Amino acid sequence: MRKFEASRRSREIEYAIRDVAVPAAELERQGHRVLKLNIGDPNAYDFDTPQHIKDAYIEALEEGRNGYSPSYGIPSLLEAIATRERGQGCDVSADDVIVGTGVTEALQMLFGAAVSPGDEVLVPGPTYPPYISYVRFFDGVPVTYRTAEEDGWQPDLDDLRSRITDRTKAICIINPNNPTGALYEGDTLRAIADIAGEHDLFLVSDEIYDRMTYERELTPTARASGDVPLVVLNGISKVYLAPGWRVGYMAFRDPDGRLDAVKDGVQRQARARLCPSHPAQVAFQAALEGPQGHIAAVNATLRERRDLALERIDAIEGLSSARPGGAFYMFPRIEDTALQDDKAFVLDLLCRKHVLLVHGSGFCPVFGRGHFRMVFLPPREVINEAFDRIEEYFRER
Ligand SMILES: Cc1ncc(COP(=O)(O)O)c(C=O)c1O
Description:
By secondary structure, the protein is of the alpha/beta class.
């Protein structure tokens, strides 16, 4: 009987964050309580979407906004996004914005339009995995540049420069960063933009955690990059606490029209897939234009949880971590040389102590090795219990 093969493209897609969830689900099926520090979804913990944003979604349903929307997004949302981006120093109009089913679909369409076979795209190491998967999916080559742990995971500019070839097309920046929580310095962003300018590259800046910062505000890449062609990505998932609604966008800040063909390629894909969720777009507009008060409250809670997690890590011999300046991740180093197989460590910890982390090598086999990613989203008592168990694990070794 004929067995149908999956395509090479699909076989190569990996998503470490969800992969380790499979054995955890099995433990739960057996009745164990697993403490999950693996998923970057605030709504999986004790955070909820602000009421006025939910109301806007419900009203959209009631008002019959249930049909298809224009492919690039509803005009009033495109305007709201352009206004928001201009406030960030990103000089775009509504025509420069394309709304997608989350930043993740926007990325897929962007790489689908920008990457031809053999094109190289510079991505931070470690990185959010779709940057690797989608570049590969379109037969491009993701090239990882080092971010320096000793420097709070800031991009290593010399390393970045050394990886540029005549096939390089773009430099991707994730700021604040997943998985490290690093918030980049303005000077670093200016230097990256200079490198892009020098080598005729465009910049991709994923700012989905832009307003989740703890000691200082984000410098938007737009403010640090002059007229270097730039695609900014953002959405409703993190700051507005609605990742399940699936809305995000890309905005082309491109004063000389150098990305026109890429934008056209994105728009063609957007038309072919019809549209993103219509009511969710109405809600995203309400999120952008309505009260922003929840952000300070969420950040205060997260700052406290971050500090608790850092304190607990500091007290464990065998672990250390840089202090994340944004997002809700940290990327601790496993000091014990016997535990450098980080996936084996994560699976062993899960099996013995029922704490779920994500192995660092899932975010980059080179620069993520010997690390794990954890979220500091859970309430204090869960963070404490998880670290009690982690501490026990190290003590019993
Ligand atoms: C850097 C980064 N970009 C994008 C996303 C996903 O965004 P969306 O929910 O809009 O697809 C994530 C989610 O973890 C992320 O960490």
